[in-house]
């Protein structure tokens, strides 16, 4: 601290009565240079109206940062679920539903985001099952990074099925609607 006080007197920051004068930017810059050459790691000076702290790394010392420990565990074997008896008609129904869906056109998500059926919570939904849509009509919005993107139908037809629940995350190219173009 004695070296520091000598510095302050030398640069006119202290007067002989140990009263501090106003430090301007030049005084602060000179103080920083002095501290870096004096090989001290920290100098802190505080008065009623003024406080300054200057920290410098000591020569030859390196900053050491602790790394969190990473633990890996081996995957555990999971018992296979017991087979569930299904009625013989179920595969036929699935095949029929798949063939029914093949005659419809799918409107897919052009981006990753959150699917909304309404433009805002107090408004009506864009489309319902059974509504007729034309090419260019807005069918939903997808919020991505705080931007609400209107998704338009690429085809004209009738909405047959809505495949996503409102306010649900969607992936790129995920089916959103089934449309009957006939």
Automatic annotation (TrEMBL):
Lipoyl-binding domain ranges (all copies): 104-180
One Pfam match: Biotin_lipoyl
GO biological process: fatty acid biosynthetic process
Any one GO cellular component localisation term in the record: acetyl-CoA carboxylase complex
Keyword flag Zinc-finger: no
Matching InterPro entries: AcCoA_biotinCC (IPR001249), Biotin_Carboxyl_Carrier/Decarb (IPR050709), Biotin_lipoyl (IPR000089), Single_hybrid_motif (IPR011053)
PROSITE patterns the record matches: BIOTINYL_LIPOYL
Keyword Transferase found: no
GO molecular function: acetyl-CoA carboxylase activity
Key words of the record: Biotin, Fatty acid biosynthesis, Fatty acid metabolism, Lipid biosynthesis, Lipid metabolism
Pathway linked to the protein: Lipid metabolism; fatty acid biosynthesis
Task performed by this protein: This protein is a component of the acetyl coenzyme A carboxylase complex; first, biotin carboxylase catalyzes the carboxylation of the carrier protein and then the transcarboxylase transfers the carboxyl group to form malonyl-CoA.
Protein name as annotated: Biotin carboxyl carrier protein of acetyl-CoA carboxylase
């Amino acid at each position: 601290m004695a070296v520091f006080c000598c510095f302050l007197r030398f640069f006119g920051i202290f007067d002989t009565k140990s009263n501090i004068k106003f430090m301007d930017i030049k005084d602060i810059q000179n103080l920083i240079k002095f501290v870096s050459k004096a090989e001290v790691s920290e100098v802190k000076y505080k008065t009623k109206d003024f406080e300054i702290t200057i920290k410098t790394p000591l020569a030859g010392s390196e900053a050491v940062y602790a790394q969190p420990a990473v633990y890996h565990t081996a995957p555990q074997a999971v018992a296979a679920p017991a087979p569930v008896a299904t009625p013989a008609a179920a595969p036929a129904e699935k095949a029929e539903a798949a063939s029914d869906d093949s005659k419809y056109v799918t409107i897919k998500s052009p981006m990753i985001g959150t699917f909304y059926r309404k433009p805002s919570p107090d408004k009506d939904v864009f489309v319902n099952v059974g509504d007729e849509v034309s090419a260019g009509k807005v069918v939903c919005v997808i919020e991505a990074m705080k931007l609400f993107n209107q998704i338009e139908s690429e085809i004209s037809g009738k909405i047959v099925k809505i495949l996503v629940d409102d306010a649900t995350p969607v992936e790129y190219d995920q089916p959103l609607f089934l449309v009957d173009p006939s």
